[in-house]
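FAQ

Q: What does a record look like?
A: Structure on top, sequence underneath. For example:
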């Protein structure tokens, strides 16, 4: 049976706050408490869905956060492999209930991670995450105890005056941490900022994402299409890079032209000047490389690359 395509509807633009995405909290309660052991993930009880609503909600949120649209069959496989098969609706009108924390766990630790967009573990509490990284080192723990309350004060003060859509720059907080507590203070301040961003990105209950994607890319294009042009990669889409980093076994199945684009993207990021061929009637040369722009203007290619796919097993001695 052909997998049904899930229609993708972009969520409204997120109020972005630069490197620290907290402006969406403006006007709400104070976002964090200084107590390192507190669980900041609000337990909102159960969420009721009809079958189609569950699938569409999960698909659209994943698409908005990652910039990838995935077909229903792949989404269903990920959910079942994650151990949440009982949550997959039997039909479009079936009524199901899933706890909010289970929905977060499914969204983050399973779906986002399988698409290469997130670490496998859900960020429960930004401050607690950093606390656990410092608790066994007395020096770092002492600095953490001083920096964490400063971070909470910084966040609450900044969020209280932030306008929706404005950007909040945490550099003043980080610089103050360095001035007051030295290098270790700066490191812990950066850890706190990074942890908050990860915490907000991982939540399916807000519209904050790491990248403002210029388009939504069908994951199926990686396997079936020859289109290389993308606003998120010169020769190969960064979203596909992230996916393959987590699902490298699937590289054998990608479209041959996409593989050429991946090779070209790799060499480009290594600093080479790259010229990728047309894909067909290219005299066996897929990519031409020069060490720099000056050489590319004056000399023939220094390296000629031909991409080949080998499906049979190759022994180590080959």
């Amino acid at each position: 049976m052909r997998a049904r395509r899930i229609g993708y509807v972009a969520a409204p633009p997120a109020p972005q706050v630069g490197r620290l995405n907290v402006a969406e909290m403006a006007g709400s309660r104070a976002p964090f408490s200084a107590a390192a052991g507190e669980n900041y993930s609000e337990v909102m009880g159960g969420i009721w869905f009809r079958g189609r609503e569950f699938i569409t909600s999960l698909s659209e949120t994943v698409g908005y956060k990652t910039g990838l649209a995935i077909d229903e069959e792949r989404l269903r496989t990920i959910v079942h492999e994650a151990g949440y098969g009982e949550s997959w609706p039997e039909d479009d009108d079936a009524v199901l209930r899933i706890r909010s924390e289970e929905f977060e766990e499914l969204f983050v630790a399973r779906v986002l991670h399988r698409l290469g967009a997130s670490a496998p573990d859900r960020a429960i509490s930004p401050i607690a995450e950093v606390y656990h990284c410092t608790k066994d080192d007395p020096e770092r723990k002492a600095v953490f105890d001083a920096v964490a309350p400063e971070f909470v004060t910084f966040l609450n003060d900044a969020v209280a005056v932030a306008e929706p859509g404005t950007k909040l720059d945490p550099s003043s907080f980080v610089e103050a941490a360095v001035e007051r507590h030295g290098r270790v203070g700066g490191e812990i301040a950066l850890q706190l900022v990074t942890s908050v961003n990860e915490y907000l990105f991982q939540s399916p209950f807000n519209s904050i994402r790491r990248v403002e994607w210029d388009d939504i890319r069908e994951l199926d294009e990686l396997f079936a299409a020859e289109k290389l042009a993308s606003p998120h990669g010169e020769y190969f889409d960064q979203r596909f890079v992230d996916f393959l980093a987590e699902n490298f076994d699937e590289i054998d199945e990608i479209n041959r032209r996409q593989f050429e684009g991946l090779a070209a993207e790799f060499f480009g990021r290594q600093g080479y000047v790259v010229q990728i061929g047309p894909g067909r009637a290219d005299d066996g040369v897929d990519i031409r490389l020069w060490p720099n722009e000056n050489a590319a203007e004056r000399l023939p290619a220094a390296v000629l690359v031909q991409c080949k796919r080998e499906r049979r097993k190759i022994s180590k001695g080959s």
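Q: Is there anything notable about this one?
A: The longest helix spans residues 171-202.
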